[in-house]
Amino acid sequence: MPFERRDTNVPQSNLWFTELQNDNLSIGLRVEKTLHSEVTPYQTLDVYETHQYGRLLVLDGCVMTTDKDEFVYHEMLSHVPMHTHPNPKNVLVVGGGDGGIIREVIKHPSVERAVLAEIDGAVVEASKKYFPQIAAGLCDARVDVQIVDGIKYVEDHPDTFDVILIDSTDPIGPAVGLFSKNFYESVYAALKSDGLMAAQTESPFANQELIRRVNQDIGKTFPITQLYLAHIPTYPTGMWSFTMGSKVHRPQDVTESRVKNTRYYNAQVHHAALALPEFVKELVQS
Ligand code: SPD
Fold this sequence. Notes:
Layout: E1 16-22, E2 25-39, E3 44-50, E4 54-59, E5 62-66, H1 70-84, E6 90-95, H2 100-105, E7 113-118, H3 121-130, H4 132-135, E8 143-147, H5 150-155, E9 161-167, H6 181-190, E10 191-200, H7 208-221, E11 224-231, E12 239-246, H8 267-274, H9 278-285
Parallel strand pairs: 6-7, 6-9, 7-8, 9-10
Antiparallel strand pairs: 1-2, 2-3, 3-4, 4-5, 10-12, 11-12
């Protein structure tokens, strides 16, 4: 049977959310209604109800997460590094005020304490209100939500964490410092002797220079560096990268999944995500 086509007589809102990636590329979602808009001390924050992807969280005009595909990003930024560490007990999430990464981190039974260092309390509040299934973990007894500058928090906590996850916005505005070599050096210092980190590092199609630089900077800071990929439909180009820096443990050594209730991650996906297309290998080898 061919595609089921929409009845063109049904009236539709003609309001579209459009994220301009650059002068030549945008992604668009038809909006059913605007649920929330505010200007926080750090950024603009909007929440929309969309037809295709459910609720959509937008910061400074960029898609942060949607109801329908958030699981891919949150599971892949958390479970690939969390499984790479044999026994992660103390975990820090920098950014990630919506709570999605924390929700995944606390699925690991070894976790005793998970700190969220988010600069903008408005993101946490909006997520609790409009994305309760994403923010659910923020109330867990092991979770400590700190509304602070993540860069300073990392600098102030040497030799503290087993795993640090950097769930930043795009490298503009408040997130610029989270993509710098100085910051990766602070992250290295905040990790215990066998600690490891992972960060979201944008699209290999749209952000090649950034990926090249970040890989070099993490590679100069950590003995082990690994870029890995996942497919996230609402992020520009759909192909998304994450970069891990590790003092000792290798993501290739993971043998099985320690968490059962995932929708994207499993041990096979873990290894598949490490396999890089040739044009992405070029970015990390140069
Ligand atoms: N271009 C999208 C980059 C967004 C990365 N962070 C999203 C936050 C979701 N927890």
